[in-house]
Amino acid sequence: MDVSISVEYNPDIEKLYRRFEDGQELTDAEVGALVRAGKIGGEEIEELVESPRGFPGVFAGRGFGE
To answer: Does the model's pTM come out above 0.70?
Structure first.
């Protein structure tokens, strides 16, 4: 038996970025999508690393833990 699974994930980057800015919950993959799209970078990553939940984690957004 052969099984093949193909998953395409094309996130709405602008929607994810709004969620990030609002401090909403994001998955590791969603944070990665924002990084790959150039929406967040070094400073924001440092903020995530310093967050009380740690990094990577499911809670990653500006304002979280402030």
So the answer is: no
